[in-house]
Amino acid sequence: MWHDVPVWLQAGLWGLLGASSLVVGAAVAYLARLGTRVAAAIMSFGCGVLISAVAYDLIFQGFRSAGIRPVVIGAVCGSLAYAAANWLVSRNGGRHRKRSGDQQASDSQGGMAIAIGSLLDGIPESVVLGVSLLGGAGVSLPVFAAVFLSNFPEGLSSATGMRKAGRSKLYVFGLWIGIAVLSGLAALAGAAFLGSAPARLIALVEAVAAGALLTMVSDTMIPEAVEGEHGVAGMLVVAGLLLAFTLSH
Q: Cα–Cα distance between 100 and 108 in angstroms, integer?
């Protein structure tokens, strides 16, 4: 019965499911109130999974299907685009949007900046999740695992910081649910508009997302993970990378 569902709709549902871990992470932040070290450990593991997915399921697959040029151009453009957008968001109050400590309390325009910043992180990976369905073999399990596992600590860490900054539950959960829905729509759009695209264009789109995601991991997730969990952060990144690589092969 699932095979009768249009690919673009399947992509939207997978995108929504992958982004739902943002809401799950926010819920855990309010119900369980995990310590900073636990949140950082989860984020470290998610970093490893995401790095593996970027390297093997986006960069390498794009190279195999379309050669090196679209991969290099796309990755550089994605990195530059994310860096520029992240700078604008940070400058306007979203600098600490992923922080689990008290840093968010100092954000002057945190609400809108957090929403924009989270969309900035979530849209590229959701588009890639939708594109991964176009080959006809179903959703890419490593890409989905990377999206889900990287979103969970983001929701957990950011919601913890929002709670400490005094933001209401309605605000926090409304924000993450809205972002999850928009991520699902991004995955749907990726599959709907790129269904008949040539391999070079798909490789280019995947590389743009890869460059943006790897820049996001380096700029925001890894610093937070290392600051919160000095001792084993590196080992957890390696563990996440090896798990995702195993799923890929």
A: 17
Residue with tokens 């990195």: 79
What is the CB neighbour count within 10 angstroms for residue 216?
26
pLDDT at 74: 92
Query: What does the pLDDT average to over 8-21?
Result: 89
Tokens of 140: 């890419």
Q: Are 102 and 164 in contact (CB under 8 A)?
A: yes
- In angstroms, the CA 239 to CA 28 distance is 23
pLDDT digits (tens, 9 = 90+) for 185-237: 988 988 888 777 788 888 888 888 888 888 888 877 777 777 766 678 889 88
Helix (H, G, I), strand (E, B) or coil at 229: coil
What CA–CA distance (Å, rounded) separates 214 from 52?
A: 10
Q: How far is CA 137 from CA 6, 133, 152, 194, in A?
A: 14, 7, 26, 16
- Containing 64, the helix (H) or strand (E) segment is helix 61-66
Q: With contact defined as beta carbons under 8 Å apart, do 180 and 20 qualify?
A: yes
